[in-house]
Amino acid sequence: MGTPDLIQMQVMWNRLIAIVEEQAQVLVRASFSTSTREAGDLSAGVFDRRGRMLAQSVTGTPGHVNSMAASVLHFLDEFPVDEMAPGDMFITNDPWKGTGHLYDFVVVTPVFHPDRPEQGVVALFACTSHVVDVGGVGFSMEGREVYHEGLYLPLIRLGRDGHIDPALLKIMRANSRAPDMVDGDVHSLVACNDRGAERLVQMMDEFALDRLDELADHVIDRSKAAMLRIIGDLPHGTWTSEMRIDGVDDPIDLACAMTVGPTGIDVDFTGTSPVSTWGINVPLAYTVAYTSFGVRCIVGPDVPNNTGSLEVVRVTAPEGTIVNAPHPAPVQIRHVVGQMLPDTVFGALAQILPERVPAEGTSALWNVLLDGHWEDGERFIVLSFHSGGAGARPYADGLSATAFPSGVRNMPVEINGAISPIVFWRKELRPGSGGAGRHRGGHGQIMEIGNRENRPFNISATYERTEHPPRGRNGGGDGATGSLRLAGSGERVKPLGRSRIPAGERLIMEFPGGAGFGDPAERAPAAAAEDEQSGLA
Amino acid sequence: MIVPPGAGVGSAIGFLLAPVSHELVRTSHQRLDAFDVDEVNRILAELADEARLVVAEAAPGAPVVETLHASMRYRGQGHEIDVPLPMGPFGPDAADRLLAAFDQAYRALYTRVIPGMVAEVLTWRVRVSTVVAPPPSIPPVEQRPFDPADRHRVLDPNEGWGDVALVDRSALEPGHRFAGPALVIEPQTTTVVPPAFDVTVDARAHLVLHRRPDPAAGAATNEEDA
Question: Is A29 part of the contact surface with chain B (CB cutoff 8 Å)?
Fold first, then answer.
């Protein structure tokens, strides 16, 4: 075709977004891990041959998406695009060059047009999902080095000619407590990229495109220009913020300086606490992902996410801080700190745009990770994603029991009852947990968990906001802190680390609530009356 | 573009013309590596018998066709796929046949199968349906011009004010031909014929809209490519 006009470009851009959404849906439908298929803990995207992300699926989680975008560039450094052949596929779970911990497998597949393979790579598809088990200490913060945390796949070739390397699959199977599920998930990752590639070739034929370069430039340039226009309307200067969170042995200070200027926004984490001896450290890739997501929630949220819109937000952190933990620091539970970064940058953004930035929330997921043995001796593991309350928004109450910023879904508790002897006796909104304000913080939850067989079980707790609550904004009240205790004895259970719940006991978990926004005296009478009536205020 | 008579209530007409059918679903979890052929054959026979009875009440004596689908997945997955199968009963090679059908459906959806992984069936779906003969082909008709007498001034946001022909659809006969712009009016709906289209009426009273060849085509991009 000749030079496509703006409308044709926009139609093709939308088609790219539809293709990556189908790619993500294949991953959801074909996946074996419950976190991918039930919670949407995944990402999928299409890249040009220079490794620029052109589109990402809406289904997915920011920690994956933005770090996966950087990961593709690492693959291209390792495997030059001109040396790739049709049917090649590549994989990694490198926390520093992938998406932050060993559980996330990133698969990259180059696309060739089948009628003209000599033309070389026309695009690349990449996807990420959280697999069930990679050996090591399991999904816990107990590792003291990344070597303890399980199988480590550097950036490597996963297969050629469309066939997955059987030797590599054997290694993965031998290093997992759930070999079939990991095997199946690797296949589903490869399949979703293949489906994306098929659809992209169909699109290129339909629009008579022989390459994507013009479309890629259009997507990137437009998105970048839109972001720069929005940033140009902000006051320029530097703002700082700090947030203290619980940490494991000592509290952690997250500190950032945000500089807004004509070429974009720079966020630097100088002043942040050093790496921890526990596996809650964050590789820089994951820090960049959640920081830029936090900025983009407020600045240019409607601009599609791609390299153009991402590259105007630059993130740095001194090496050795907990948000730029060097290899071989343990990083398995990096989300507990990483998901706090949007709240940290909100502290700076709120000084620039006081009426646009929400209050702090629970932010880090409250995953319920339990294990034990059935009466017949067989081991069970339950990993279930759950959330406390989100911070109040400048225009509305905070969302209750909602995962912000990760965006993953809470998992239905019935699924766990079907695969383990664990019973969730209670799962309800927690009264009084949302901070007061013109807009109230989202409610946390209360869960009561027991074993229907009269046997003990273990919890691997990775919970934040049990000592340092989410803080209110513009006069709003703080959210409630979370806690864990035994139902019978009332004994407290530690929020970080592994504890045994004795036979016959039940665990009560109180999730934090989100903080409030604005003076509570300004709360609309109708909203106040509803709070009263619901019994939740 | 073809507009059949009564297009505005097409789904209601379709309901009246659709075959009489009844579909039954039963859950019987079967791993292919431990497949109980007798149990499955018993379930399929029960479902087919029950569905045939229902269809026979609504369409006594009509010839019927039976189809079978299984919801299948690999063990450990959470979503099933729909696998079409030949209606039973299954023989001793049932597991192999099911795996072959599953592989085919799985590959079509997800591009590749997973070697060595155990597949399983969760539910069985039997449908019994009367046989509907395909409609006969539409014979060609001799075309003749139709002159819409009424005209009406209409505002088209793209073209501005213009004279549009008003056509009463009940006055049209097979073979009639007229040019857009026109509004073809019937009790349930109105068909808008844009200025660039001609209309012919086929032997079954369908309106067939053709884009008129664009004299400028070839020189510039035409609307269809935009």
Answer: yes
Give me the pLDDT at residue A63, please. 82
Q: Find, in chain A, the residue whose alpha carbon is nearest to that of B113.
A: A187
CA gap A381, A386 in Å, rounded = 16
Confidence at residue B218, expressed as pLDDT on a 0 to 100 scale: 46
**What are the pLDDT digits (tens) for B163-206?**
899 999 999 999 999 998 999 999 989 999 988 899 999 999 99
Give contacts of B114 with chain A, Cβ < 8 Å: 183-184, 187
* Best mutation target, B72, B74, B224, to test chain A (most A CBs within 10 A): B74
**CA nearest neighbour of A246 among A327, A328, A67, A366:** A366
Q: Strand pairing partners for A141?
A: none
Q: Are A384 and A449 in contact (CB under 8 A)?
A: no
* Lowest mean per-residue pLDDT among A197-211, A337-351, B144-158: B144-158
What pairing do the DSSP bridges indicate for beta strands B182-185 and B160-168? parallel
Chain A residue with Cα closest to B108 = A195
- Nearest 5 degrees, angle CA A31-CA A34-CA A39? 100
Question: Element (H or E) spanning A160, and its range?
Answer: strand A156-160
- Please state the pTM of the whole predicted model: 0.86
> What strands, in cross-sheet order, belong to the sheet with A237-245?
A237-245, A252-261, A264-268, A313-316
Average pLDDT rounded to a whole number, residues A160-176: 96
Q: Which of A516, A98, A522 shows the shortest CA–CA distance to A331?
A: A98
Mean pLDDT of chain B: 89
CA gap A51, A307 in Å, rounded: 9
Asked whether the CA dihedral A271, A277, A279, A285 is positive or negative, the reply is positive
Statement: residue A417 has pLDDT above 90: no
B196 CA: distance to closest CA in chain A (Å): 22
Distance CA A61, CA A419 (A): 25
According to the model, what pLDDT value does residue A190 have?
97
Strand-pair category, B64-74 with A104-111? unpaired
Cα dihedral value B8, B11, B16, B22, nearest 10: 180
d(CA A490, CA A508): 9
Tell me which chain B residue has its CA closest to the CA of residue A132.
B76
- CA nearest to A36 within chain B: B78
Region A130-139: mean pLDDT is: 91
Mean predicted confidence (pLDDT) in A288-313: 95
Preceding omega of A394 cis (within 30 degrees of 0) = no
- Cβ neighbours for A301, distance < 8 A, ≥ 6 positions apart: none
A40 CB neighbours in chain B (<8 A) are: none
Residues with Cβ within 8 Å of B56's Cβ and at least 6 positions away in sequence, in order, are none
Q: Are strands A264-268 and A313-316 parallel, antiparallel or unpaired?
A: parallel
Q: Given A181, A183, A195, which is nearest B111 (Cβ)?
A: A195
Q: Count of CB atoms within 10 A of residue A122's CB?
A: 22
Q: Which residue of B has its CA nearest to A189?
A: B110
Interface contact flag, B112 A8, Cβ < 8 Å: no
Residues A60-102 have pLDDT tens digits of: 888 887 899 999 999 999 999 999 999 999 999 999 999 999 9
Q: Which residues of B touch A (CB under 8 A)?
A: 74-79, 81, 109-112, 114, 117, 226
Residue A3 has what pLDDT?
Answer: 66
Residue scoring higher pLDDT (A236 or B136)? A236
User: Are A34 and B78 a contacting pair at CB < 8 A?
Assistant: yes
Measuring CA to CA, how many Å separate A484 from each of A465, A497, A508, B22?
A: 12, 12, 6, 53
Interface of A with B in 158-187 (CB under 8 A): 162, 180-181, 183-184, 187
ipTM associated with this complex: 0.84
Output the pLDDT for position A44: 95
B79·A181 Cβ contact <8 A: no
